[in-house]
Design a protein that fits this description.
heterodimer, A: 340 residues, alpha/beta, Rossmann fold, 8-stranded mixed sheet, 13 helices, 13 strands, 33% helix, globular, B: 328 residues, mainly alpha, MetI-like fold, 2 domains, 76% helix
Amino acid sequence: MSNPQDPLLSVRNLGVVYNTSQGPVHAVSNVSFDVRENEVFGIAGESGCGKSTLIKALLRLLAENGTATADRCTYRGRALMDMDEEDFRREILWQEISMVPQSAMASFNPVHRVGDQVIESIQAHRDDSRAQAMERAAELFDVVGLEPGLLKSYPHEFSGGMRQRAMIAMALSLDPGLIIMDEPTTGLDVLVQERILRRIREIRSELKSSIILITHDIAVIAEMSDRIAIMYGGEIMEQASAIDLFENPHHPYTLGLKNAFPSITTLGTELISIPGSPPTLVGPVQSCPFAPRCPFDDAICHSANPEAKEIAEGHIVRCAHSADAARFRELAKEKSTWLS
Amino acid sequence: MLDYILRRFVYTLITIFAVATILFIIFRMLPGEPTMQVISPAMDPAVQERMREAFGLNEPVWKQYMIYMKNLATLEWGRSFVSAQEVTDILGHRFWNTILLMAAGMCMTLVLGIGMGIIMAWRRNGPVDLIGTVVGLIFQAAPPFITGLLLLMVLSYRLGMFPTGGMYAPGARPDGVLDLLMTADFWHRLVLPTLTVGMYYISTPMLIMRDSMLEVLGSDYIELARAKGLKSRVIMMRHAARNALLGVVTISGIMIGFAVGGQVVVESLFSWPGMGQLMVESAAQHDYPVAQGTFLMLAILVISLNFLTDVLYSYLDPRIKITAKGLS
């Protein structure tokens, strides 16, 4: 029923609203993207931009006060949101879409052996015996470069890097079509981070899984992803292939993010941060969410939320002034632009 | 692990030793002559003197202490001033009677309490949760002598559903614990005291379990368990309840300690021939050897239960082993 040219995951106008005592919070709005077969799709943005909420909405892990709606949300042609709870649990979760959670430290249950937690994910979906599942777990540990003997250990006996590898091993256990990695390297030191990323790249070239990589680290996302979406205030501001996004950025927020991270080629130049803080997202959005912090804002930006425009093949920008991008790029290099 | 258990065991022995010492001091500080029950002032002073010698009371205090400790260790706990029976024999019977009642009460408290706690957390703010919280708190606010009396008044005197007290019918005297357990009458008589104990203590494990469950349910590993597509029953039992149990085990040690103390009230109320009742009787009759033995036995019981809790905890929480190594 699915066509090989179709995207693996296709999301159109996904929105998530949390009902809070301060009123409805629109944590994610109008999010549309496709993840193709065998690609790494990066989602970048600062803390609180809705990256993690987006993932939780896809996996039905939202807190009780959160509701997700979408015009379309299909995985290999199956409408995820219409699926019955039990079918979704058995056929989609982990079987088709697995995840490497944000905090590998806290995501292992401290009272069970790591191996038991790995085989539990296998046995929840297959009729494997304990011995078969253990054999598979040992294979997986080998893939991520951990001693199979460590399966008998408890999580507290692992270092941060080891736990992260074990998490990746667990995410691979059922050969899912899509692995969501939520900040897989946060909290690890740079050397361990590099080793984990290298391992992810190796795994990716061997397996056919696609990956959604979520991070606030532009350097990591640039290095790993085929295509990138930049999120701000619960919306995707700009979406393009990794090369396009870094060579030909259009959205002022993308320009700002690039400025705020060091790069090898511009070593020695001062980093410029974007003044201000992300919006609270309480109440309906009636302007461009980035307008209050944008150095190029005008009346249009504050009166209506701009529509997403496809300015080139696969390059989508949500900015009323995307035509002025070349001028913005020049101005954005000056610190004074951001401070005024 | 073994290392940890061994160390806890040594601590347990030291605690029992300390309690025995404190008992020795307290019984010597009590007003009045402890021997008044047996050595009458009307006796010939020479006879009085000889009897004191027989009890070792003419020796200096440190020597009395040595003898006391030696006798405790060799289970020579003396004879009752009242019935002249060996204290260890009396306690031997009473101990099991207390254990039976405690076990029934604590089983009801822990099994029902933990089970209710799980359901309440699972269906948070549902009817079971709301009713459970209110009823649990009402039970906890009512002391056992009130609930016990109410149960007796309504179920025994008014409705005649249960006997008013005792472990067996007057006249019947089963030989040994096993024999007792085989009679339906015993179980019938066990209901009311068990309910009294259970009602008073159930809110502790229930509310602790509920709260720990809710805390655990918000943790990252539960979210991952959901993402893994585990059945919700598996998530609740293997991940949430298993971890929340740690909090209940910690508190149970303390709770059971209190319950042993509360046993005095419940046993007196239901004429249950256990150690609690024995403690009251022997104190009233100035039967010092029996009182001393009972106090010591109850203390040993509480301390041993705490030791068992520690062992259970180390089994339930693998991280404890590291701590144990860190201590050595």
